[in-house]
Amino acid sequence: MIIRSLEEIEDTVRHVRAASGTWESKRLVLAREQAGFSLHVTTLYAGTQTTMRYTHHVEAVFCVEGEAELTDEESGEKHWITPGTVYLLDGHERHTMRPKTDVRCVCVFNPPLTGREDHDADGAYPPPGPGA
Ligand SMILES: CC(=O)NCC[C@H](N)C(=O)O
């Protein structure tokens, strides 16, 4: 059994601040734990916008705090994301988050992230390497 808190991973390698300056991610469970998924607590900052497309991953995002507009860039549909709502990117959709307030969410990735991933120019993370 592994027990780990947000407090103890603050400012460690498990705490990633995006180069874009629009979000940060605390990665509580990573590929090295061999759970088959990674689990993060992500904060998206109020007034920003982040466009993503996880070509190599499926992500579930469960909002626990704050409010954001989510746009599916493929269909043009807009959704309001509030605490208690999950969105699942089961089709690798290109999408944009526009938080009205700081938004805190619990994010699960399959395959799991390995550690320090940040978005590339397309808003993706690289595919997992061997042994991930
Ligand atoms: C909501 C979202 O996808 N934000 C980008 C960061 C990602 N959730 C991560 O934790 O790496």
UniProtKB/TrEMBL annotation:
Pfam families: Ectoine_synth. InterPro entries: Ectoine_synth, RmlC-like_jellyroll, RmlC_Cupin_sf. It is an enzyme of class 4 (lyase). It comes from the Bacteria. Its EC number is 4.2.1.108. Catalyzes the circularization of gamma-N-acetyl-alpha,gamma-diaminobutyric acid (ADABA) to ectoine (1,4,5,6-tetrahydro-2-methyl-4-pyrimidine carboxylic acid), which is an excellent osmoprotectant. This is L-ectoine synthase.
